[in-house]
Amino acid sequence: MKRLIETIVKPLVDHPERVRVETEEQDGRLVCRLSVHPDDMGKVIGKQGRVAGAIRTIVNSASAAGRKRVRVDIMD
């Protein structure tokens, strides 16, 4: 999932070298914490959270094959 999130996010931002994804197992689900450069935060979240929602939808669809729930948190 880490590589999938990086592949989606890096083309969206101005500072792709600052994209970090940390993963952790929590309560039977995989938690992915995404952090980006502060200037890129708006690009990752999008208007009314639409980009963030789309990222979460794609990741959840990809995780359905593995039958494990994934949560994507965008850290500030």
UniProtKB/TrEMBL annotation:
Keywords: Cell shape, Cell wall biogenesis/degradation, Chaperone, Cytoplasm, RNA-binding. Forms a complex with KhpB. SUPFAM superfamilies: Prokaryotic type KH domain (KH-domain type II). One of its GO terms (biological process) is cell wall organization. One of its GO terms (cellular component) is cytoplasm. Its main location: cytoplasm. Belongs to the KhpA RNA-binding protein family. This is RNA-binding protein KhpA. GO terms for molecular function: RNA binding. It is found in: Cytoplasm. Pfam families: KH_KhpA-B. It comes from the Bacteria.
